[in-house]
Amino acid sequence: MRVLLLLALSFPLLAQCQKAPLPPGYRRVQNLDYVGAGDPRQMLDLYLPEAKSDKPRPLLVYIHGGGWSAGSKDDAQVLLGLIKGGTPYAGASLNYRLTSQDQWPAQIHDCKAAIRWLRAHAQDYNLDPELIAAFGISAGGHLVSMLGLTGGVKELEGELGQHLDQSSRVTCVMDFCGPSDFLTFGGKGSIIDPDDPTGPLAKLIGGPLKDHKEEARKASPISYITPDDAPFLIIHGDKDNVVPYSQATELDAALDTAKIPSILLTGTEGGHVFLSGPLVERMYAFNARHLLGKDVQIPEGAVPSK
């Protein structure tokens, strides 16, 4: 089973946009419109166990990466690897508006609308509305961090969809190499120049960082930390040349200061996205602790990146 999981999680698959093959025992419910506007970028797919269950199932929600300018809910291989290993989880993978369509905060408005829709329709799909983990990679890591840290922040909730009475909070967050503070993003640690007017950050916040610092602050997860935020698992390679490793250590330290449970897993010699057996096992354990209530230990610190 572990070999199959690692194959499903292998890095080359992350770049593909074809639909991920279904794990045995799961069915896919496609193109659920969580806003109701008919926009393909505001739809999600559900991955549901076929086996009957008397108990509602915890849900893993995956948000794709791609620099806020590319990617798709079809890029769900990593999610399927996490839900298929004999666990009781359901999964969801969602689209959100890209920067070619709209700039910040459209992306987090979409993600929050999706969480509200999932909570409102939990009974329809036998999901537990109180047990929702958010998992994202790169730009998706940024968005799940925002979900975990901005519950109840009115200006980031938006007014999308028919379920504004529902909460957009999540139970826990797995942030895989996501940016946390755009104001400290620049420097020698990244191939991305935050002052490049054509770069991914400028497209997100409306222009170069030097001219849009307030917008950058408002788009930074670290700006919103409060003591009631969700527990975090932060995964980052110490040789990441896209999102600097310092983004992870800065977020982890800020969460620790606020006394929010935070575990930082550092991929030794790891670049931007890496996978290994020990890392997968700790991700399993994190979900088991926060979604299944199991008393499991999750060692913090270094993990092999291969």
TrEMBL record:
Every BD-FAE-like domain range: 44-255
Pfam families listed in its UniProt record: BD-FAE
UniProt keyword Signal present: yes
Single GO molecular function: hydrolase activity
Signal peptide: 1-15
Entry keywords, A to Z: Hydrolase, Signal
Protein name: Acetyl esterase/lipase
Species, as recorded: Prosthecobacter vanneervenii
